[in-house]
Amino acid sequence: MAAISPSDEPRPRFWDKWRARYLDLVGSAAFQSWAARSLFTRAAAKRDGERLFDLVAGFTYSQILQAFVALDLPHHLRARPAYPAELAAKIDAPERRISVLCQAAASLGLLTRLRDGRYALARLGAAINGVGGLRDMILHHDILYRDLGPAEGFFRGETDPDLARFWPYVFGAAAAEDPATAERYSHLMSETQNLVSDEILASLSFAKAQHVMDIGGGTGVFLAACARAHPDVQVTLFDLPQVAALAQDRFERAGIAARATIVSGSFRDDPLPIGPDLITLIRVLYDHEDETVLRLLKSVHAALPEGGKIVIAEPMSGGQTPDRSADAYFALYCMAMGTGTVRSAAQIGELLSKAGFARVSPVKTGRPFVTRIVTAEKTVNKS
User: Do residues 121 and 159 both lie within one domain?
Assistant: First the structure.
């Protein structure tokens, strides 16, 4: 990359100069020492200090959470509180280390320390078993943690992340032919898809749809939930052969097999089925680069009838208002995968417009950290 000479740099604006002076002041040791003692600033200084410390300690927090789940403390403490010594015997680990883990988990709100020295499962810790796929995702993060280091090398693009080998489907059908890999991917996706499906159906009505097709629909979690909620709707699942084959059993167990069609294929290489009046793309676009996404959206537009709708649901960047879950988590996850990007609703809207869609509209969700939604329509041609 060519170096930028000082003469090429833009001249700072007035507010840029003012902000630089302010930041120089805040960044000085003398000011920080004064702010910590002053009656007018010490509360803010304390909050900033705590936030900075949480950022510094963030990795240890994530390791505490992973050990909490991997050692199955929610299960061991579900029936009753226990002393660290009891847990250490069950887990076959040194008591001193389990005592440190319990105290650490209590500091993070996962456990509650009782007066007699026992530890009880707190509401936050109990919720881990109740949130679909969360436990599996936490355990899966050992791959992500390895991929993010060393941090400077990761952001320079000098590392060789393992996540790309965990999610090979993003590179095309040929990359996901190994049955074991496909099964591992499908299990994790289906476990976490329940939460996303619930959020979509709670935020958006599918009552007017007659035929819903889910592209990249995996094992059919969303379509099964959609069909149960709307007894008259027909559903079609389109995904890679190794993945789509796993959906038939789910549809039969859900009692919707008579209304469900499974089409195997790759949206990169194969035409999309014609007929559905509503097509969903759930956690698909952010796995791929703009060129692939635009090509997919054009294919969806061609497959829909006039008046047909598209629903896109996935993590989305906050854009002008950066969002912690999307911009500090999913964006890095995509980088570790080696392809794809987290886009804002506005960026997805631009791609939809380029593909020929109109009436692009973001849909408010109750839990944006689970998913955000953008819809659009193939407008009626009046010519």
Answer: no
